[in-house]
Design goal:
Elements: H1 7-25, H2 30-49, E1 55-57, E2 62-64, H3 66-85, H4 97-116, H5 120-138, H6 144-175, H7 180-190, H8 195-211, H9 221-227, H10 230-254, H11 260-285, H12 291-314, H13 329-357, H14 368-371, H15 373-387, H16 393-407, H17 411-437, H18 450-468, H19 471-481
Antiparallel strand pairs: 1-2
Helix pairs in contact: 1-2, 1-4, 2-3, 2-4, 3-4, 3-10, 3-13, 3-18, 3-19, 4-5, 4-10, 5-6, 5-10, 6-8, 6-9, 8-10, 9-12, 10-12, 10-13, 11-12, 11-17, 12-13, 12-16, 12-17, 13-15, 13-16, 13-18, 13-19, 15-17, 15-18, 16-17, 16-18
């Protein structure tokens, strides 16, 4: 076993230990954020140094390839931006800042392992390492709403884990294997449809559906988004969703990608879930008055758009060389990067505004362009991206993933997706209208820390750059997805 391949993960473990120990001895808790950022930067350095590597380790349970490294960098970047955006917010739980940063980093560690795993056992262990810190973080405010959010998230998360485990147990019982490649060989060797296999696929999809907030496994989202600390919600809506899609892509492409009848079956399942999820999320978001709750329902709809890409993967022949050029995994990867930047930017602005207003009501954002022009401008840009309007990154992300779906015979699903993008414009632009055309309740400015402004600037700049010059990120996404056709 080559420990150097665990450089990103081991450096993150060391950072968690350092944060916990420093929290015991230092009085200036703000230093903990700096230590966390340095640890994330070191981990990212190890990850970049391994770019181009394609090997497995730990008895073939974990792999180091472009796909895993892409997601590791994405998780590290999201964690860094969330920590920067948290600097104003952590005063709400000043006594527990060390625990907050440590749990955030532990969850990122679990996500990194989720992206690299190729064995059912390590998938489940990394999934729980990701989830348990998030259950705790959701209740960090320790008030009634936050505690309710944490309890709902925990109970429904435990239920989804049980469903996922049962699906994995069925798959192991049918194939006698836990490694994804060997499972694929056993399924191809059987050569005929099996009711138990289809049931296993459905249960696994249901278990992972909870992580990505896909209908009908989305019932936890609105209450958790409303009650949990806003930086935790930002982390949940981006990193946790990306981790869920990473492991779904790995499992369904590597273990269940052939024969074609099987991939067509789960492709049809994801297409149906995408259509229902887009309508459910967007229609439920329309009447919302709380901006965090609105973005919770928006997250359900965004999962539906991403499922369009997964459906295209399912309807692609297993050896299709065009799979990485737009319609398949690379489209999902590019969309996740664009969505993460837009959602992080939106929540970072919300953190600053809500801290001042002590309210998450959309009506209280009235006239915000006069009180905090940069915050309002950045929030507007990120909302435009979530709609899919140019020149923001969301436009290119949707164009990329939808054009691929059309190439694989899913025109009907793309029409539904475009219609839902139009529906979503109403509630996103309602926030923009209130900020730009409403009368401010006060002339008092909205303050924000330098760290938060850095996070907001990086997110907004990323949204613009990926929207205007997407080629670089598209090439990285294609290189990361190419391992599925090797």
């Amino acid at each position: 076993m080559n420990l150097s391949l665990f450089g990103p993960e081991l450096s993150l473990v060391a950072t968690v230990i350092a944060v916990i120990l420093l929290d015991l001895v230092i009085q200036r808790k703000g230093l903990l954020a700096g230590v966390s950022i340095i640890g994330l930067a070191v981990s990212a350095g190890f990850t970049l140094a391994m770019w181009g590597t394609a090997t497995s380790t730990f008895y073939d349970m974990l792999t180091v390839d472009g796909f895993a490294l892409f997601f590791k960098l994405l998780f590290l970047g999201i964690a860094a931006l969330v920590i920067l955006a948290s600097t104003d917010y952590v005063s709400k739980f000043a006594r527990f800042q060390g625990e907050y940063y440590a749990l955030l980093l532990l969850s990122a560690l679990g996500m990194m392992l989720m992206a690299a795993t190729r064995d059912l056992v390590s998938i489940y262990v990394s999934l729980e390492l990701t989830s348990i810190p998030l259950y705790v973080l959701a209740g960090f405010l320790k008030d009634a709403r936050s505690s309710e959010a944490s309890l709902k998230y925990l109970l429904l998360g435990a239920l989804s884990s049980a469903v996922l485990l049962y699906g994995m147990a069925l798959l192991f019982g049918l194939t006698g294997e836990t490694q994804l490649d060997k499972i694929a060989e056993a399924i191809r060797g059987a050569g005929f449809p099996s009711l138990a296999l289809i049931l296993s696929v459905i249960l696994i999809a249901a278990g992972f559906g909870f992580k990505i907030a896909a209908v009908p496994f989305q019932m936890w989202v609105p209450d958790v988004y409303e009650g949990a600390p806003t930086p935790v919600v930002a982390y949940l809506s981006t990193a946790s969703k990306a981790a869920g899609f990473a492991v779904i892509l790995r499992v369904f492409s590597s273990a269940l990608g052939s024969p074609d009848w099987l991939s067509m079956d789960w492709g049809a399942i994801f297409a149906l879930l995408a259509a229902i999820g887009m309508f459910w999320g967007n229609l439920a978001a329309l009447p919302q008055s709380n901006i965090k709750r609105m973005l919770g329902y928006s997250s359900i709809a965004q999962a539906g758009y991403l499922l369009v890409g997964l459906a295209a993967v399912g309807f692609s022949p297993a050896a299709d060389p065009e799979l990485v050029s737009g319609p398949g995994q690379s489209g999902v990867l590019f969309f996740l990067a664009a969505y993460a930047l837009a959602n992080l930017g939106a929540f970072t602005a919300i953190i600053a505004i809500s801290n001042k207003l002590d309210s998450d009501l959309i009506a209280d954002y009235s006239g915000m362009i006069k009180r905090a022009p940069l915050l309002a401008l950045s929030l507007s840009l990120c909302l435009f991206s979530l709609i899919g309007l140019p020149p923001a990154a969301g436009f290119m992300a949707k164009f990329y993933i939808f054009s691929g779906a059309v190439q694989h015979g899913l025109l009907w699903l793309v029409i539904i997706a475009v219609l839902n993008s139009v529906i979503s414009a109403y509630y996103y632009l309602r926030v923009v209208k209130v900020m730009w055309l409403g009368e401010p309740a006060s002339e008092e400015k909205v303050p924000s820390s330098g760290a938060l402004r850095v996070a907001l600037a990086l997110s907004s700049l990323g949204v613009l750059l990926i929207g205007i010059v997407p080629g670089f990120v598209i090439r990285i996404a294609e290189a990361a997805a190419r391992m599925f056709t090797s």
